[in-house]
Structures are given as C-alpha cells and as structure tokens.
C-alpha cells in the first residue's frame, strides 16, 4: 500500500507547490479531527472498494470476454465514465475524461507491477482521493482565481486529474510504469 501512497503524494505535490508558489493558494495546515478521519476513511474505503470493483472484478470479467489488452483499456474508460461530471461543459468534461482514463490505466499498470496485488492500487487511488480531500478540507486554501489547467475542472470542487498538470503527470507516470513492465522478467 505504501508503494501506492508515495506516487499519490508526489502527484498531489505537483498541484500543491505551484498553488503555493504562484500565490493561488495559502497553506493553512488546519485539519479538524473529523476531516482527518474522513480523509482516512476516503483513502481506505474508496481506495479499497473501487479497486476491488474496477481493477479486481470488472477487469477480470472483461478479460474473459475481450482479452487482457482490451480489458485494460475498457475498464479504464468505464472508470472514467462513472466518475465524470457531465455538467461541466465540453472541454472541462473532456479533460476530466482523459485524466480519469489515464488514472484507470495507471492503476491497472500498478496492479501489474505489483504482480496482481491490488494494495498498490488502493494506496495510489485512496491516497489521491483522501489526500485531495485533506488539502481542500483545511490544509490548503485555494484561491477562486487558481487556474483550471492546474487544479482541474469543477469550479468550487475541482478535480486535478482533469487539469493539464494532472494529465501530464499521469502520462509521465504511465510511461514510466510501462517501461518498468517492459523490463520486468516474464514468468
């Protein structure tokens, strides 16, 4: 699980540091006990539930019908569609669809790197969800003028996965994972 939490921390830092350095955010460092509990519950609850569903059950079912490669892409697209907010307008929605699809592919690659274990996926997915909740819940004050390319679409409830920084970071992470998978010894 720690193997997934570290990349989540890195991805969240790529959003947080420019916010702080660009004067679009202010570090508050205040997190109530309730918000800390919610962040941890999101980290473990959402991470575990969604990874069991998407990278566990759905991917396995799709692989039986479509083959492993098609199943990876299909589970990522379904993951993206389930999480997209369709009330954002066309371009923000497309950014979110692309970012979420990339996240689905990154999580699938993480599972393959962990030799089928879901724990790295749980840490990465849960770390992103719980970490972003904690940042917005009191650790960081984000200015309304913060650029969408950095914090992603969503207005008052942005999703950084759909911003240009999130998409670029997930693309780099996916590329590194695929390189590691290509170099890994075959069973």
Key words describing this protein structure:
187 residues, mainly alpha, 7 helices
Written account of the structure:
- The protein is mainly alpha-helical and 187 residues long.
- It has one domain (2-24, 33-178).
- It has helices spanning 2-21, 33-66, 68-83, 90-113, 119-139, 148-151, 164-183; strands spanning 25-27, 140-142.
- Strands 1-2 form a two-stranded antiparallel ribbon.
- It is globular and about 50 Å long.
- The mean pLDDT is 93.
Using only C-alpha atoms, the radius of gyration works out to: 16 Å
Largest sheet: 2 strands, antiparallel
Helical content (DSSP H or I, runs of 4+): over 70%
Q: If strands are numbered along the chain, what order do they take across the biggest sheet?
A: 1-2
Percent strand equals under 5%
Instruction: Tell me the count of domains.
Output: 1
The quaternary structure here is single chain
**Total number of β-strand segments?**
2
Q: Could you tell me how far the N terminus lies from the C terminus, measured between alpha carbons in angstroms? A: 23 Å
Q: What do the pLDDT scores average to?
A: 93
H/E element order? HEHHHHEHH
Number of helices: 7
The stretches of 5 or more residues where confidence is low (pLDDT under 50) are: none
- Form type: globular
Q: Look at the helices and sheets and give the structural class.
A: mainly alpha
């Amino acid at each position: 699980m720690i193997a997934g939490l570290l990349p989540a921390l890195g991805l969240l830092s790529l959003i947080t540091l420019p916010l702080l350095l660009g004067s679009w955010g202010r570090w508050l460092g205040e997190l109530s006990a309730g918000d800390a509990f919610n962040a941890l519950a999101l980290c473990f609850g959402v991470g575990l539930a969604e990874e069991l569903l998407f990278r566990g059950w759905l991917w396995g079912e799709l692989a039986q019908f479509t083959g492993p490669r098609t199943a990876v892409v299909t589970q990522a697209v379904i993951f993206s569609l389930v999480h997209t907010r369709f009330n954002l307008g066309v371009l923000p929605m497309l950014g979110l669809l692309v970012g979420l699809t990339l996240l689905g592919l990154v999580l699938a690659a993480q599972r393959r790197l962990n030799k089928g274990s879901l724990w790295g996926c749980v840490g990465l997915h849960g770390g992103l969800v719980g970490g972003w909740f904690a940042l917005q819940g009191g650790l960081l004050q984000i200015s309304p003028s913060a650029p969408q390319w950095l914090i992603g679409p969503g207005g008052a409830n942005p999703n950084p996965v759909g911003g240009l920084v999130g998409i670029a970071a997930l693309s780099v992470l996916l590329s590194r994972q695929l390189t590691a998978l290509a170099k890994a010894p075959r069973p």
